[in-house]
Design goal:
By secondary structure, this protein is mainly α. Helices cover about 75% and strands about 0% of the residues. Among the domains are: about 80 residues, no CATH class; about 100 residues, no CATH class. Helix 6 crosses helix 8 and helix 10 packs antiparallel against helix 11. The chain is rod-shaped, with a radius of gyration of 46 Å.
Amino acid sequence: MAELLHSNTTSVSRFASLDPRVPSPAFIEDLHKAACVAAAASGRSVGITPEDLQILRALAEAETRGRCQSCAELGRRIDSLSQQLSTPCPSCEARERQLAADAAQLRALKREVAAMRTAVQEMETTEAGLRARLALANASRTPLPVPPRRGDRQRSEKEKAMARQLAAQAGELDSAGKEDSALILLRHGTTELLNPSETALVMVELREQERDHLADDLIHVYGRDQDDRQVMAVALELHEEGAVNDAGAILRAALK
């Protein structure tokens, strides 16, 4: 019996001998369960619910302590509230988890912003260096870093004719709604057939034909795909043609 009540033989004997001390609620709960098992074995009913048995225990405790039934009920409520307060609030736990997740996300964003700032600073430093080298080359009129060419470096009629021809062919494709084909033609023509001087003339010619979208695309693709020497050479040619904005744009494209 003591094992069923999760107690010891001394406590069971004390309560069985009408000891005035009132057993705990847990003891009463185990006692009711043991009584139910014994009653079920004999095919009978216990005849009292566990709730009513707990009420009787509370009344006995109140009587022992000299408290009324209301005081006993208040005591039970206080015990219940104390248990609730000691139990973590699900809403509070969820809120704490959300705050922790938000803090982790904020730290990740700060690291990303710091990395982006570092990358921007490096790009600005590189761009400043390229601009300085371009200005120095323009001021000193030193030879351009391009393959040797025959004849005078000044614009020749042949260069202008080739630039106009390529720009015109691209313009015809663009007018026919084949902008992608026009850009492919410009890309291959400037990188495989023309030198930097002629490439710059193609860009200027596209501006004069008011095909700014083709000029912008060509500047972006050329600056992105070609090596720094070629890009600097084209930028210098554009600068000499008065296309200062396009010269800066092709340098920026090389940094991306």
